[in-house]
Amino acid sequence: MSAKVYSHAKHDDVANAVGKHILKIQDESLKSSSTFKIALSGGSLGKVLKQCLIDNSTIAPNVQWDKWEVYFSDERLVPLDHPDSNYGLFNEMVLSNLPASTTKPKVKTIDESLLTGKDGQVESSSLLKDQEIAKSYEASLPENAKFDLILLGCGPDGHTCSLFPEHKLLQERNEFISSINDSPKPPPRRITFTFPVLERATSIAFVAEGAGKAPILEEIFTNKSSKLPSKLVNDLDTGVEVLWFVDDSAIEGINVISSKY
Ligand SMILES: O=C1O[C@H](COP(=O)(O)O)[C@@H](O)[C@H](O)[C@H]1O
């Protein structure tokens, strides 16, 4: 299945399209399950999520928050209230803006207690500690690490989750969640979904906006032999649907077929 690209001129329309897709997969998933299992990313996605899930008066009332199980496709190994935390971003943008009467979703975060030493201070990097955090997060994943929807970002270097170009984690086949302590983008200590999790998903949706993303999108969509992590997601042949939600500036001048969602 090849990746489909949905492009809109304005940021608001991109956010609206992302929101419509989330509702579509939510509704389909809830026909056969009591919960909707979604994984989120950090970075620029936070703003998009606020716009579609909180501010959009057509979409917001149809989000069945009480049935959502929220995970993170990658997480930075920092306290949950640290500005670098992907959970922290989601909390700031979305959770903290939910009306008080709304039943909150179940949100699976890293076990923050594993970050700190006996004195309560965040411990400096330790491979074993980071592996323990990854194992503990893996234990909280849905059965068979199967997600209904995974929302991804694409960094200007083509990374997605915390899977970076040419990093050995691109080959990981034994773990669903791996730790990385040499992330080229700060902070260096993170945990991340691996390809076996991405392969099992029902739907994967990238969100990438701005002219700054155009050079990397050009490589992803026009260089057939590229091994960039986001391109490897496009190439998955496990039946997972892969969609891209972009603005026109992110694909300007690129030979890629796009439509409106
Ligand atoms: O470090 C990260 O970066 C990617 C891409 O972020 P963006 O701001 O360029 O959209 C993000 O998807 C990932 O979750 C995050 O940890």
UniProtKB/TrEMBL annotation:
Pfam family, one: Glucosamine_iso
Functional pathway: Carbohydrate degradation; pentose phosphate pathway; D-ribulose 5-phosphate from D-glucose 6-phosphate (oxidative stage): step 2/3
Domain Glucosamine/galactosamine-6-phosphate isomerase positions: 11-235
Highest taxon, organism lineage: Eukaryota
CDD domains to which the protein is assigned, alphabetical: 6PGL
Keywords for this protein: Cytoplasm, Hydrolase
Protein localization: Cytoplasm
GO cellular component terms, A-Z: cytoplasm
Gene3D superfamilies for the chain: 3.40.50.1360
Principal localisation: cytoplasm
Single Gene Ontology MF annotation: 6-phosphogluconolactonase activity
Entry's Gene Ontology BP terms: carbohydrate metabolic process; pentose-phosphate shunt
Record-linked InterPro entries: 6-phosphogluconolactonase_DevB, 6PGL, Glc/Gal-6P_isomerase, NagB/RpiA_transferase-like
Known catalytic reactions: 6-phospho-D-glucono-1,5-lactone + H2O = 6-phospho-D-gluconate + H(+)
Family (UniProt): Belongs to the glucosamine/galactosamine-6-phosphate isomerase family. 6-phosphogluconolactonase subfamily.
Descriptive protein name: 6-phosphogluconolactonase-like protein
